[in-house]
Amino acid sequence: MNTNESDKNEAQSPNRREFVKKTAAALAATSISASDQEKPQVKFWPEAHWGERMKAPDDGKHYAWLVDTRKCFGCHGCEVACKAENDVPLGNYIRQTIYQDFERENGQMARIMVPMACQHCEDAPCLKACPCGALHKGAGGTVQVDYNSCSGHGACKEACPYGAIYIDPVANQAIKCHNCTHRLDVGLEPACITTCPSEALYFGDLNDPKSKISRMQKMIDAGKNTGLEVLRDNKNTQPRMQFIVDDNHPMDVWEPKIPREGESYSNDAYSVFEWGQQAEGNDK
Known about the structure:
The chain contains 10 helices and 10 strands. It is of the alpha+beta class. The chain folds into 2 domains: 1-38; 47-275, Alpha-Beta Plaits (2-Layer Sandwich). The strands form 4 sheets. Strands 8-1-10-9 form a 4-stranded mixed β-sheet, with helices on one face. The chain has a two-stranded antiparallel sheet with strand order 2-3. A hairpin with a 5-residue loop joins strand 2 and strand 3. The N and C termini lie far apart (62 Å).
């Protein structure tokens, strides 16, 4: 090769290198894009799509939950009742009891058990994300799924900040707590309520001052050593589930164990290797 050809190739080599870089970047972007398309993308639709569905029926009821973290001793009664009532398959959960071990200020080890389920948010992100309009507000503000419309897209699961939705592996539809509406319609309480032996769960109409949940809420508000907190209030979802906590059952100890967006309750929660883990990621 003569000197002129060598100089010409050398002059072109940076352009070749630039071409290779751009081609590699384009292929990588294409690969990432294809991979992303395999997963449901979290997207809140315009209010015109979900505004009416976010409104609760004008039935005069305000269904809500109280969870007394001081009383739950992890018997799984609520879980079993929920599975039996709603035909929940093995490996999936509509509600789950969360365990967390921690060390108290006096050096003693303790365990907190907290029964978890859908928070039935006032400003429900799952409802905003649903592309097929299946999620809506039912009696008393209950967040429900219309199974004649649900396509199993999974956007609701990706949007839920509390991991309270799973996609049924057979029906390919979104499954979550619906406050046992079929029981409420005939004057019964949700199955988990009637099964809890420690009375750690309260459900009812907050618009009824004589309801058990209203009386309990008033009692806690008047207490000195206890308080009411909602889960991840920084999400601004206005959940209808409140937790009774005190110095021995602080929320910041067990909150990191609750699933987040894109997650669901799983069998891993009951692994002995999970029980002893200290709470981490409080800033998430």
